[in-house]
Amino acid sequence: MSAVDKQLEQIRDEIEQEVPPDIHVSDVKYEGPEVVVYTQHPKEFAQDGDLVRRLASKLRKRITVRPDPNVLTPPEEAEAAIQNVIPDDAGVTDLDFHADTGEVVIEAEKPGMVIGRHGSTLREITQEVGWTPEVVRTPPIESATVSNVRNFLKQEREERRDILERVGRQIHREEMADEQWVRISTLGCCREVGRAAFILSTAETRILIDCGDKPGAEGEVPYLQVPEALGAGATNIDAVVLTHAHLDHSALIPLLFKYGYDGPIYCTEPTRDLMGLLQLDYLDVATKEGRTPPYQSEMVREAIKHTIPLEYGDVTDIAPDVKLTLHNAGHILGSAVSHFHIGDGLYNVAFSGDIHYDDTRLFNGAVNDFPRVETLVLESTYGGRNDYQTDQEDSERKLIDVINRTTDEGGKVLIPAFAVGRSQEIMLVLEKAMRNGEIEEMPVHLDGMIWEATAIHTTYPEYLRDDLQNRIFHDDENPFLAEEFNHIDGGEDERQEVADGGPCIILSTSGMVTGGPIMSWLRHVGTDPESRLVFVGYQAQGTLGRRIQNGWDEIPINDRGNHGRAETLQLEMDVETVDGFSGHADRQGLENFVRTMNPRPEKVLCVHGDERSVQDLSSALYHEYNMRTFAPKNLETFRFK
Amino acid sequence: MSAVDKQLEQIRDEIEQEVPPDIHVSDVKYEGPEVVVYTQHPKEFAQDGDLVRRLASKLRKRITVRPDPNVLTPPEEAEAAIQNVIPDDAGVTDLDFHADTGEVVIEAEKPGMVIGRHGSTLREITQEVGWTPEVVRTPPIESATVSNVRNFLKQEREERRDILERVGRQIHREEMADEQWVRISTLGCCREVGRAAFILSTAETRILIDCGDKPGAEGEVPYLQVPEALGAGATNIDAVVLTHAHLDHSALIPLLFKYGYDGPIYCTEPTRDLMGLLQLDYLDVATKEGRTPPYQSEMVREAIKHTIPLEYGDVTDIAPDVKLTLHNAGHILGSAVSHFHIGDGLYNVAFSGDIHYDDTRLFNGAVNDFPRVETLVLESTYGGRNDYQTDQEDSERKLIDVINRTTDEGGKVLIPAFAVGRSQEIMLVLEKAMRNGEIEEMPVHLDGMIWEATAIHTTYPEYLRDDLQNRIFHDDENPFLAEEFNHIDGGEDERQEVADGGPCIILSTSGMVTGGPIMSWLRHVGTDPESRLVFVGYQAQGTLGRRIQNGWDEIPINDRGNHGRAETLQLEMDVETVDGFSGHADRQGLENFVRTMNPRPEKVLCVHGDERSVQDLSSALYHEYNMRTFAPKNLETFRFK
Ligand SMILES: [Zn+2]
Ligand SMILES: [Zn+2]
Ligand SMILES: [Zn+2]
Ligand SMILES: [Zn+2]
Ligand SMILES: [Zn+2]
């Protein structure tokens, strides 16, 4: 009997000691980080509301109980019974029975009402029908991404169960190493922004954190081929942890599967969905620009299939000697500060990913409170000594003012924006301003991936700022559903109509005017001197957005209908910039994050910033807080224990 | 045609352009780092004394010319002709003809006379008989190690040629990497002494420098299993470079072959022989102490078979992007500061290995003059702020004095000493003192591996200090052949005789009184209050030597004849310590090495010293010379380019 099977036997013994004698445990299995308990008495199991919690705390593992297939109420009967238990207001839109595992997936508009207080409604369901309910939210705005991911996972259920069982046995394998050490190797995003990738390794385990590309620098991918990464074989990586879906962190994750990786990806559920959306778009853009994409869409599906979603705060075994906990990072939907607890109290490392320290309209500020943490790997995008941003209130006032000045003159406001995060932030500002009468009610047109990204945001309100959640949950006034928001889904015709119409606001990708529908909008309204182009996000060196900011007004518009010949557009509209809407903490925010961090880390690695930013921040943290700080280069390895 | 074969074609073309039209080149091959040119006109080739040098400088490669087998004078005839060319005084002791390669190995007491001025006699030989002569020295003291190694290599000639051809093609392979970087990974001997092992890596190449054990700390071997070392497979290592034969640098090299390594080991010729001697002794000791040796003697032979000996100063291609040059390190016979020139002027790293900065009686001081060097990896054994040693002259005076005091009273002087290096140093001091009448002429008995190690020293006088070489070469007064030196080869009987005899000096291993014949000598003379035990080398914590130094006089003597029961000896002899004979630079020497280094390196990694030593030295070099200094931990990786 293998060590893992022995361990499962032991767990089964311990469970049997804890459950009442009338409950029969028929099997115990690992499924990813969870222990799944199969029982012929699911109803009895569900009667003791505290039993699962007691087991979890005794075994220090996550526990799921599932019915033995032969004790299940038939689906037709069960469906009626379930509908009976769940209040009508919950808005159940789908019930999906999986006889193989005894799970029933309930899609509802109000998942909270399906769950009930402390899970009481769920338990009631099991007591009635034996099935184990799992609840997902019906997206309030239809999201192709969410429904594609859900359908795909449904279809791949069996393979996914195999994957999860394999991963589970891998996580709970016997520890082989007789040494103890903790190291971080840097594979990218050191003294640069882009291609985030780190290896966290112990004598037992290797974990890859992020695997992004470097936008605008083709070919500069993370150093995946070195021996400490994939050089010794992709199967030597135990786990991949993704802090958030931005492409500079996620773009090359599917490539790992092409290289033979077959293990889990840990991230939040919204990160999984946004990752899929952005990666497919990444392939699309590559193809459109005539580049060979580094992988095919098949590999994006592999990535999704291998994702094990975690919620903020869940402490999860991801290797025999590593526990992972994700915490809100305040940067984009589902973004996570990733905390690793290594060994039995041996060492703790937190990777900030990208963070926003202060609350924004969209998100709570980043969590910086941990049970323990000795080393922090900290993003430094705005770590430079002068990288201070306008505060949010001033920024909002300025945005409202520029909108009013424009629409008063009968013009239109065109805002290039990133689909994920910044667009939703601006939408919230606009919605509030119209509600309060600070700007007139007028159409806000959303073009490019913005609508889809917004739909994903509304699917996971738990990841939004507290009071925004409350509005969505309790007051039934989801701001994203405001009638002013219009999805541009009618192509050029619709754009022409908008251009011919009255005052309005247009939010369109790409955020740095490097392609996408914004180019079309420039053709439609760029020559209108009454209208205004308003930048609300960082415009990188070399982008058209930056050039326009700098005063260029001869804009090359590549019109593919015109045999690819360059056409030049004379920009007549006004150009303004409103800063302060960044998803990144500014220099002050980064310092505050560290200063108020609990506990204060001993060492900080400053990464994800250009040379000057990481050096400035590293030196400031050293001098102000007396920590050991580093500004690593790519391809280095630091040992901590 | 492979890229390597194409390159060989090209080289052949270039050679044919350079040689006179009457010389026909029949083949060009790689053999290790050398280009071997086969010709049907070896005699004509040898006529132009400058031709090979011109080819080497044109091709920037090491060139060897060999005759086509079918143009060779038959060995019987050739032997007579060769004997005729070489002066009788050369003392030829063996001629060995290898028809497969047209080489004739000439063993002679005076190799210089076989070579002739600028190689003139060698060329004369080839002109006479066509064969390519190779000269080795007849050991003036018979050395089992040297003759075993030479016989073994003769016997394995064919396989060795295969290895060399494979290595040669590997060295001259086409460069595949499109990136450029230079890194050092630390696998051992950081913040500790022992288990020296580093990986020097580029995008193209991985080189292992040293692979030693940690004496007294069983199980603390270098971190070979990490991916940047052998974790990705032993065959991913391009080359092993051995700085010197001490076991803390060489002990685990044979293990690499057990792990599947099949590439070259670069070191000096004496290092190869001493390595063999010490490794076999290492296996012996392990077996005697009841430990399982990590490899068998078969693997020591593999290591010797894969060794490519280099001379000091030879610039050698060891990878497509790495050139290695070994320089005298002044530490032990054949010890080398290893200089790596990477890329086409990309970067230069020097590994000091163990060094002695000042001249000693035995060796010239370490070389610290390089064409370029940006990073120095520096041993720090005596890097602590108070690690200053008595200077050599005072030490010698003190040693002479203690000997005279002892022998005047009719006692014997017992000196525990390391077989390699320190023993020969003391031998030279004693020989000179007797020659000068500073001490009486009396027998100096050499026990343990000292005699054998001395024999190896006399085989390679080119590696000894200039004036010592001169004495051996020109004045025919080899101090190691002094009649006072007696090899204890008669076991206990001879020791008893010596003990019963008059005043004398006994040099015996082990140097730290941890086993070996010194234990027997303690039984024989330890109870004699007229005699003296004199320590001339460092006694590590935990060794019996250290305890005796500290005043212990109840010595446990494990007598295996006595059923393994511990016997206690009451030490009656006087105990004295004479320091200053270390093979390591002291703190001043280390600073001098760096201060006078040309060019001054930008960065220094302080290794091979305990925590305090590396920190002290690192901090001193930083403050005094304003270099970037580091005291790495094991398992870290530093990037330099
Ligand atoms: Zn981001
Ligand atoms: Zn980022
Ligand atoms: Zn060190
Ligand atoms: Zn040494
Ligand atoms: Zn050493």
Automatic annotation (TrEMBL), chains A, B:
<dbReference type="Pfam" id="PF07650">
    <property type="entry name" value="KH_2"/>
</dbReference>
<keyword id="KW-0238">DNA-binding</keyword>
<feature type="binding site">
    <location>
        <position position="331"/>
    </location>
    <ligand>
        <name>Zn(2+) 1</name>
    </ligand>
</feature>
<feature type="region of interest" description="KHb">
    <location>
        <begin position="73"/>
        <end position="140"/>
    </location>
</feature>
<dbReference type="Pfam" id="PF17214">
    <property type="entry name" value="KH_TffA"/>
</dbReference>
<keyword id="KW-0255">Endonuclease</keyword>
<dbReference type="GO" id="GO:0004521">
    <property type="term" value="F:RNA endonuclease activity"/>
</dbReference>
<keyword id="KW-0862">Zinc</keyword>
<dbReference type="InterPro" id="IPR009019">
    <property type="entry name" value="KH_sf_prok-type"/>
</dbReference>
<dbReference type="GO" id="GO:0003723">
    <property type="term" value="F:RNA binding"/>
</dbReference>
<dbReference type="GO" id="GO:0003677">
    <property type="term" value="F:DNA binding"/>
</dbReference>
<feature type="domain" description="K Homology">
    <location>
        <begin position="98"/>
        <end position="165"/>
    </location>
</feature>
<dbReference type="InterPro" id="IPR004044">
    <property type="entry name" value="KH_dom_type_2"/>
</dbReference>
<protein>
    <recommendedName>
        <fullName>Transcription termination factor FttA</fullName>
        <ecNumber>3.1.-.-</ecNumber>
    </recommendedName>
</protein>
<feature type="binding site">
    <location>
        <position position="246"/>
    </location>
    <ligand>
        <name>Zn(2+) 1</name>
    </ligand>
</feature>
<keyword id="KW-0540">Nuclease</keyword>
<keyword id="KW-0694">RNA-binding</keyword>
<comment type="function">
    <text>Terminates transcription on the whole genome. Termination is linked to FttA-mediated RNA cleavage and does not require NTP hydrolysis. Cleaves endonucleolytically at the RNA exit channel of RNA polymerase (RNAP); the 5'-3' exonuclease activity of this protein degrades the nascent RNA released from RNAP.</text>
</comment>
<feature type="binding site">
    <location>
        <position position="354"/>
    </location>
    <ligand>
        <name>Zn(2+) 1</name>
    </ligand>
</feature>
<feature type="domain" description="Metallo-beta-lactamase">
    <location>
        <begin position="194"/>
        <end position="418"/>
    </location>
</feature>
<keyword id="KW-0806">Transcription termination</keyword>
<dbReference type="InterPro" id="IPR001279">
    <property type="entry name" value="Metallo-B-lactamas"/>
</dbReference>
<keyword id="KW-0479">Metal-binding</keyword>
<dbReference type="GO" id="GO:0006353">
    <property type="term" value="P:DNA-templated transcription termination"/>
</dbReference>
<keyword id="KW-0269">Exonuclease</keyword>
<keyword id="KW-0805">Transcription regulation</keyword>
<comment type="similarity">
    <text>Belongs to the metallo-beta-lactamase superfamily. RNA-metabolizing metallo-beta-lactamase-like family. FttA subfamily.</text>
</comment>
<comment type="subunit">
    <text>Homodimer. Interacts with RNA polymerase (RNAP), interacts with the Spt4-Spt5 complex.</text>
</comment>
<feature type="binding site">
    <location>
        <position position="249"/>
    </location>
    <ligand>
        <name>Zn(2+) 2</name>
    </ligand>
</feature>
<dbReference type="InterPro" id="IPR019975">
    <property type="entry name" value="aCPSF1"/>
</dbReference>
<dbReference type="GO" id="GO:0008270">
    <property type="term" value="F:zinc ion binding"/>
</dbReference>
<dbReference type="InterPro" id="IPR022712">
    <property type="entry name" value="Beta_Casp"/>
</dbReference>
<feature type="region of interest" description="KHa">
    <location>
        <begin position="5"/>
        <end position="72"/>
    </location>
</feature>
<feature type="region of interest" description="Metallo-beta-lactamase N-terminus">
    <location>
        <begin position="181"/>
        <end position="385"/>
    </location>
</feature>
<dbReference type="Pfam" id="PF00753">
    <property type="entry name" value="Lactamase_B"/>
</dbReference>
<dbReference type="InterPro" id="IPR050698">
    <property type="entry name" value="MBL"/>
</dbReference>
<keyword id="KW-0378">Hydrolase</keyword>
<dbReference type="Pfam" id="PF07521">
    <property type="entry name" value="RMMBL"/>
</dbReference>
<dbReference type="InterPro" id="IPR015946">
    <property type="entry name" value="KH_dom-like_a/b"/>
</dbReference>
<dbReference type="Pfam" id="PF10996">
    <property type="entry name" value="Beta-Casp"/>
</dbReference>
<feature type="binding site">
    <location>
        <position position="608"/>
    </location>
    <ligand>
        <name>Zn(2+) 2</name>
    </ligand>
</feature>
<dbReference type="InterPro" id="IPR033769">
    <property type="entry name" value="TffA_KH"/>
</dbReference>
